[in-house]
Write a structure and sequence with these properties.
single chain, 394 residues, mainly alpha, 3 domains, 17 helices
């Protein structure tokens, strides 16, 4: 480490004020802080009251995301080979998945880092540590077939419009990764929806083999006909509870595995990084709403109303969104009670959007963005109630 420290010390004079590359100091600082914690405290939110600086706080979130990337690489390759009629062996699947996911990650970080560096240079501040998490989350929410230029456009929108236009990390009220994902969905719905987009075809194939449908559990649930047993339909389609929990089916690159999301959530909770109020609030809101719909469902109701509440939690990226995006330290609520309401509302909206808006079958991303808009209001309301309870000075 002494060699690395001497290397940075020798180059510092060129990047500080008055040096030849002073304008590139944000780039120098961002690389240096990967190896050494800065001595300065953060001046803007989020403020971590711990011996960790914000970069290391954010890096632990990326550590929690690494299993999702590992599983996503394998699952993308496995589903690709299955649909293309090729060998589904471990190493062939890994190789194909790497080609797809690695390119997407490189494009996302390159474009995201460009915008972050540009705004840091113009505004003369350090590169935001939130960039690393936003660029790590964004590819995991995308289908593996998305064109790279759309991924670049999406992260550009998320970073510039979702964050920098409001002043950067600590001042944005929307989750940048979800903002970019939502923009792509509404701007290019053909590349972000439908059964075909969730499976990357290889080996020169333009259509999947006959035995492969590519339907996701959410799309199967959405099109289930009336009077049908929705859980039976899901089981017949190959989506047992165990498969839904593991997540080895077509879907977004990293959001299908509920098991990994639960492990990641536990990791973040143990380290005190994520808020248990938000995560448990999301889960309770989802289960309570789904259970209520079960109670009001009749024989003539749409089958989705009768779906087991725990299936809602296991399908799609619900738990992934609850663990990593709803708990964003900037765009989420901050007051204790507000966090419970914020999380519970996300869970409620996730189910309602899924059940009553078939055009948007996932629901969790839109629910989080919607509640991001109300997070400051929830904090303000709780703060006013707390101030009213104080004994006035005499």
């Amino acid at each position: 480490m002494n060699i690395i420290e001497k290397f940075f010390e020798s180059g510092r004079k060129h990047f500080v004020e008055g040096g030849r590359f002073a304008k590139l100091y944000p780039l120098y600082e961002s690389i240096e802080s990967v190896f050494f914690a800065p001595a300065r405290a953060t001046r803007t939110a989020p403020n971590v009251r711990d011996n960790l600086d914000v970069k290391r706080f954010m890096m632990l979130v990326i550590v929690a995301l690494l299993p999702h990337y590992a599983f996503g690489i394998y699952n993308v390759g496995y589903q690709s080979h299955l649909a293309s009629g090729l060998s589904t062996g471990f190493f062939p699947a890994i190789f194909t998945g790497l080609k797809v996911v690695l390119l997407l990650v490189v494009v996302t970080y390159t474009v995201g880092f460009f915008w972050e560096l540009l705004f840091a240079v113009v505004r003369k501040h350090e590169i935001s540590e939130g960039l690393f998490v936003s660029c790590a989350l964004f590819p995991l929410t995308l289908p593996p077939t998305i064109p790279l230029w759309q991924a670049a456009l999406g992260i550009s929108f998320g970073i510039v419009i979702g964050k920098e236009i409001f002043g950067g990390t600590g001042r944005n009220f929307l989750n940048p990764a979800l903002t970019g994902r939502a923009f792509l969905y509404f701007a290019y719905p053909a590349q972000l929806s439908g059964d075909a987009v969730w499976t990357h075809l290889c080996g020169g194939r333009t259509a999947a083999v006959d035995a492969f449908t590519g339907a996701t559990p959410l799309s199967v649930a959405t099109v289930t006909e009336r009077l049908a047993d929705i859980q039976g339909v899901l089981t017949d389609a190959g989506y047992s509870a165990a498969k839904l929990m593991l997540g080895d089916y077509p879907g977004s690159i990293g959001g299908t595995s509920t098991l990994l999301a639960l492990v990641g959530a536990a990791f973040l909770l143990i380290l005190g990084i994520a808020s248990y109020r938000i995560i448990f609030g999301c889960i309770l809101g989802l289960l309570a709403t789904a259970f209520f719909l079960n109670l009001v469902a009749t024989d003539n109701s749409m089958p989705y109303l009768s779906l087991n509440p725990f299936y809602h939690l296991m399908m799609g990226g619900a738990m992934f969104g609850f663990a990593y995006m709803a708990t964003d330290p900037v765009s989420a609520a901050h007051m204790p009670v507000a966090k419970w309401i914020f999380g519970f509302s996300i869970g409620v909206l996730t189910v309602l959007i899924r059940v009553f808006n078939p055009a948007y079958p996932e629901g969790v991303g839109l629910a989080i963005i919607f509640m991001n808009l109300f997070a400051p209001l929830l904090d303000q309301i709780e703060l006013k109630f707390r101030l009213k309870k104080r004994v006035p000075n005499v």
